[in-house]
Amino acid sequence: MIYVGWAALYEGETDAHYFNALIPRVMTDLVLRNNAQAATIPEMPAVRLSRGPVDQVAKEACRARDAFLMVFIHADSGGRSVEASLPSRGAAYCEAMQRRCGWEPVRCVTVTPRHETESWMLADPMAVTKALGSRATAENLGLPIDANGAERLTDPKRVLTNAIQIVTGRRRRRLNDLQFLYSSIAERQSLDSLRVSRSFVAFEARLKDALVSVHCL
Hints:
alpha/beta, Rossmann fold, 53% helix
């Protein structure tokens, strides 16, 4: 039995609630789908890294390296100029860990939704409406119908915010409410729906390589 402890670096608190629910789901699904040997996938990261300068993050990760087998680095692609530099942005943390403590780059998995985290959340509109407690259709809430549509959005956060306002009638929601909503969507959404997203498929491929490297797959 392999215990697959993991660490994570997120851009924000709502992102953390979404990915803390999604990442262990995806890892567990990959292990089961590949008929891999028994593995324990913890529901929460063993270490939540603090966002900061690259070398500082690498130092923190290397200090705690015995607590996890892989680390996830979240970075939204944002606008076109940011998207172009995304590979180097994500790789910088992995390269710094490799320099500082010999961390294998394959076990440093970048998490890079197109534009914003919400593009993955909107990949399954039914999960969004259920998490909101609404019977409205995706069209009535202004949601894309699938992951392809979600990835074409330049501002998926605004699309989700507008849907929330339609359902709740409130202009803004408290942070705690948003965090609960984000984790609820991650728990409900179909992984097959997410696998229509090119950025998710790329992430899952990197995750598979990491799981192979720790002898899970």
